[in-house]
Structures are given as C-alpha cells and as structure tokens.
Amino acid sequence: MQIIPNPGGVGARVTGIDLAAPLEEGDFRTLLRALAHHGVLCFPDQSLEAPELSRFGARFGELEVNVANLFHAPDHPEVMILSNMKEGGKPIGLNDAGQGWHTDMSYSKEIALANVLHAKKVPLRDGQPLGDTQFRDMHAAYEDLPTEVKHRLEGKVAIHDFNKFWEMMRARPGSARAPLTPEQRAKKPPVPQPIFRVHPVTGRRVLYCNPGYAMHIEGMDKEESDAMLAFLFHHQDQEKYLYSHRWTPGDVLMWDNISTTHNAVADYGPEEHRFILRVQVMATLDYAALAA
C-alpha cells in the first residue's frame, strides 16, 4: 500500500490495496492515521458492492442508519444511494449536490468520524467529470486564527441546529421540501458543540464550526455572536484551505468529518447521471488508542 499526499496539503491518494477484501489490522491503523493527517483519502480503481463498502466502513466505527432514508441498497439500510437518476419517473437515490458547506452530524450529540463514498457513475460533459466534492482543512483553519480570537473562544460552544440546514435547502429554487414538523424537530433538537475540538487521532485543535448548522455562540448576545460566526465562516472560506476532488468511476473517497467541512458541487444536469454508494461512520471507537 502506498499513500501519496496531494500537492496542496489536503488529501492523499492510496494505491496498492483492494478494499473489497477484509482490511488487515495493520492497514486499518495506517489508514486511520492517514485519514486524520490528510483529511481526505482517495482509493482509485476500486470495485465494491454494498456489503463490501459496509464492511470497510464498519471497521472505523458504527455505521449510521438514517431512518428517513428511502434510498438505500437492498438489504443494506446503512448504505445510502446518492444519485440524480430515475426509474419509471421516480428517483432512485438522494440528490445531495448543492447543499452548501457543512459537517455531517454536527447537529447531533453523537458526531461522525468519516464518510465513505464509492462512485459507480460520474456525470460527464464534453468528456470532463462534473460534481466535484470540495473540502476545507479545519486543522489549518484553527492554527491560522488570530491569537485574540483563540483566547476569546476557548471553551465556548456553538449551538448547531438541523433546521437551519433544512430551511436553507427549502429556500432553494424548485425545492418541494415542507417545513419540519414539531415532531421532526423534537427528534433533532439543537445541540451544543465545542467551537474548538481536539482531534482524537492527531491531538491537534480543529475549528469545529460550520455554516450549515452553527446558529449562535452561547454566552454572547446576538449581535456579537452573529459577527463572530461571520468572521469564522469567512476565515475558513480561503483558497489555501480548499481541496476539490474530481471524481473518476471506481473512486472510493473517505473523509474526516472532524477535521474538514465539505460541499457537493451542483454543476451537472438531470441527464448527466451520477450514482454513488455512501456510508457514514459514527465516532464510536477509541481512536487515540487505535492510532497509537
């Protein structure tokens, strides 16, 4: 197995490993450390079906099963289908493109360690792939914060709310989403998250505050909180923190949901087909001990 860092500082390419085979203990530990260090890992030229993708993801933690997800692989509710394709006029997958910058599960008390996506079909136009997935490095974003901001926010939490993201999606042109019902909101109540989090593998601080879900900072009035969140979101929106992954069929892409934020680019049309299998790994293991 070879791990080849990307030249921009975020992400790495991993070759010489077949993810359809059971993952050996040494390779698992190596990949866990690489994931935390690089933020994003691309495994090219893979061929996995739902059971193999599920087995690979489950080595890193418990897999989320989204009870509202109607688009999953047969007999594998933990394996979501991301697609803009239809059969008989009905969608066969969730079209996740254009959701804006966010960190999966930051609206939940139980946070996510990683996402693992496997591209079966990638949209093309004039021979060029579309639908990049973009990432920002929150290790570096924290390190570059002004010292005064670090001191001011040390120990503080931001409230993350699933409804913020839902309402942003409802406001998009053509959206057919209804507002969340009181019952749905009760199942996804706002939760506090530390603005600065210590990564369980690297031991370094990360900026764990994303524009998709963070609503306000506890202990600040609205004007002060809004100004600080605007500063943090503007700060992390710098080119030097960005890595944009251009998909190739066969790619398995795994990213760290603690040390990155991500965005799926919506630059393809309904006839430019995309089909991706996805699992989400919750942070349920003692990663510091496993990576030691």
Automatic annotation (TrEMBL):
GO MF terms, alphabetically ordered: dioxygenase activity
Keywords (A to Z) from UniProt: Dioxygenase, Iron, Metal-binding, Oxidoreductase
InterPro entries: AtsK-like, TauD-like_sf, TauD/TfdA-like
Coiled coil: none
Ranges for domain TauD/TfdA-like: 7-279
Family (UniProt): Belongs to the TfdA dioxygenase family.
Protein name: TauD/TfdA family dioxygenase
